[in-house]
Amino acid sequence: MKQWIGLALVVLAAGSSVVSWPTAHADEEGEGPPIAAPQRVFVRHGVTYLRLSKHIQKAIGLQIEALKFTHYRARLQAYGQVIDLNALLDSYQQLVSARAKAAQSNVQLDAARAEYRRLEGLYRHHRNASEKQVQTAGANWLSDQAAATAAETRLSSVTDRLGARWGATIARWMRKDSPSFRSLTDGRSRLLELTLPLGKAPAAAHRTALVLLANGTTVAASLISPSPVAEPDLQGQAYFFLATSAIGQLNYRLRITGLIPYGSRHSGVVVPDSAVVWSQGSAWIYVETRNGRFERKPIRTDTPVPEGWFQTDGLSPGSQVVTQGAEVLLSVQTLAGAPKGRAGGEDADGD
Length: 351
What we know:
This protein is an alpha+beta fold. It has helices spanning 2-19, 54-59, 85-124, 131-176, 179-185, 326-336, and strands spanning 40-44, 47-51, 63-66, 69-82, 190-195, 208-212, 218-226, 238-243, 255-272, 277-279, 282-290, 293-298, 304-305, 308-311, 320-324.
């Protein structure tokens, strides 16, 4: 990079001989004091500018990009795991077993009821049924009724435990044997549990989260529901998410980190990483304020996003930002010895 900047400065110096700006006379537009450096650096209304011709811009490889309007919502890091399939299947098998037992008990109850009524009818009409047979059938009916009630109670208890462990949505998937649940048991999707830091639960969780993968990429996951169970190690509010892509990198029991949108949505622009230069511990960019005129401006670095740095003020959609060659402009301004002023290029003394 240093070699590239040095070469660019040589190009600038060579280009100045073509433009041939005088050093002993004031700026022809009356925009500031004379300069001694071969490149054009001047001050107007307390702001330091650089002016470069199209020829010079092309020679140093300057590239400019218009900033676009965008929205941003802060994301909180959440920690969790890919839920073990066996845990889901164990809960589902308990449900299947309780359902089967309840169904069997109801069939036996219906048969016992029908047998009692048949024998009781025969006995009343003095046909081939004894009083003892009727009493035995009645006792069987009552016994099967008690068994059916117990089976229904157990089924209700298992259903309640499903909701208490997995939440209402996943419990409903299990009860209905839904396609969403089948995709989990078939291995076509993954159930993720992400827990926010303690005290950071939003009023309503966002519908999507980003899961950070080991190869540095991310995969989107969709919200299922809040988890009714807190992780012992984390204690914050947990949420269940469904991942349907990058399954091969989401092994069961894998510990994962996710990003969950949090708070209000803000409007602004994103400054690309390539546009940022650092000087004296601060981040700066160069903005083309008019044709060939560039101003150095500070940016905030407290809101990083994957593409760069999100800004809510100081810049607007359409701002022309230097995305390649900003280091050259910084070196030009530094070597010219122009007043650096406060953040944003303002000179304390004005013109």
